[in-house]
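User: Hi! I have a protein structure encoded as tokens and I'd like to know what sequence might fold into it. I'm fairly new to this, so please keep things simple.
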């Protein structure tokens, strides 16, 4: 394959394997940082039965930092197409994924045509096909779409939607803090429902005295333990993710910590855990719970958090009835960051203005969507590696 003087791939459909794609597009220059995200997308495609990916856009140019991936995931049978069309971010890579099947060859050919032309309809750049199995033969374009079909597929692509089905992504547990009626749920619940989540708020008595009463804290954590297990048994969700705020970060941390670390056991597996207004100590090591218990952890760091700044961070917390887990996680952040545990600093935020539409729709939901199912996938891969 060659690139033209503008760094675009030469015209045509270029067929390659997944390993060849990674070697060619992820191991040159500054591209190494994208390899993990690309592998996860490829793994997701294989695990869900896709046969090939059709990739266009800036990622298959010579740009050092393309940041985005335009992709059609092709399945052999339309019945295998996943429930949702995703537009989100994985690590440092934004991606748009459409779905089709080999039973719809005209739609695939039209998409390839769309990806290879500029806004004026002129041939502009090449497109890449990634074959996901050895027995998959290179795709042959045989259909030339007319102008009307191009307009339809273009509109579909812009709306990021080919097929919609009424099936849920999974269970989204939300846990509020102290001295609140959690009015912010009125923003979170409809936004999450619109993207296919079953939202389940954990409600508990929440006086400020919980900070200084160990026995009452234990009662709340035990109540949460029973409640979430009943939810799992009743609805049998494919995945479970959690958004928690303030004292809610303590409830989920105490619950996770309460099961022996060495056993790797947790009655539920959490895909994404989003901590907001965190009152957990910064040196708490979330990495030990990944991936078998938790897939990803996002901690929102709010420099203007006027509540957490008063949280004591010395050893005398026990003397006033406070748990040694308490700390200034929302201000200091998590010390042991990794590719799985991330601090997201947002200076505009305080302890009470986090759950507005801009943060919910542009930060929380994309993070939840892209990591949906990742805990199971990566823990399964870890088990396979150990048994090899």
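Assistant: Happy to help. Inverse folding works backwards from shape to sequence: for each of the 388 positions I chose a residue that suits the local structure. Here it is:
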């Amino acid at each position: 394959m060659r690139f033209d003087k503008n760094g675009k791939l030469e015209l045509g459909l270029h067929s390659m394997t997944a390993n060849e794609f990674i070697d060619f597009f992820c191991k040159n220059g500054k591209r190494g940082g994208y390899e993990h995200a690309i592998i996860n997308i490829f793994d997701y495609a294989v695990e869900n039965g896709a046969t090939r990916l059709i990739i266009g856009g800036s990622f298959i140019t010579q740009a050092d930092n393309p940041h985005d991936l335009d992709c059609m995931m092709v399945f052999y049978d339309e019945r295998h197409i996943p429930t949702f069309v995703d537009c989100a971010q994985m690590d440092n890579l934004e991606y748009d994924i459409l779905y089709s099947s080999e039973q719809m060859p005209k739609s695939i050919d039209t998409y390839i045509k769309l990806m290879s032309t500029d806004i004026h309809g002129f041939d502009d750049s090449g497109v890449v096909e990634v074959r996901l199995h050895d027995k998959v033969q290179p795709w042959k374009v045989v259909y030339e779409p007319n102008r009307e079909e191009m307009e339809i597929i273009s509109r579909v692509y812009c709306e990021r939607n080919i097929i919609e089905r009424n099936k849920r992504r999974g269970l989204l547990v939300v846990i509020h803090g102290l001295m609140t009626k959690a009015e912010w749920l009125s923003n979170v619940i409809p936004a999450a429902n619109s993207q296919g989540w079953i939202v389940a708020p954990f409600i508990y008595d929440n006086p400020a005295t919980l900070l200084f009463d160990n026995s009452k804290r234990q009662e709340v954590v035990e109540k949460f333990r029973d409640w979430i297990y009943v939810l799992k048994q009743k609805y049998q969700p494919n995945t479970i993710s959690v958004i928690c705020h303030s004292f809610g970060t303590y409830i989920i941390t105490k619950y996770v910590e309460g099961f022996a670390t060495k056993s790797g056991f947790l009655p539920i597996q959490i895909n994404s855990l989003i901590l907001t207004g965190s009152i957990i100590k910064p040196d708490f090591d979330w990495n030990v719970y990944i991936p078998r218990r938790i897939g990803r952890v996002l901690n929102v760091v709010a420099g203007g958090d006027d509540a957490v700044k008063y949280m004591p961070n010395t050893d005398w917390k026990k003397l006033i009835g406070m748990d040694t887990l308490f700390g200034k996680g929302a201000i200091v952040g998590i010390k042991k960051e990794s590719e799985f545990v991330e601090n997201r600093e947002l200076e505009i935020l305080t302890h009470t203005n986090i759950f507005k539409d801009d943060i919910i729709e542009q930060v929380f939901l994309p993070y939840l969507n892209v990591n949906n199912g990742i805990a199971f996938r990566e823990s399964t891969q870890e088990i396979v590696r150990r048994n090899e």
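A useful reference point when you look it over: Residues 69 and 95 are 5 Å apart (CA to CA). Feel free to ask if any position seems puzzling.
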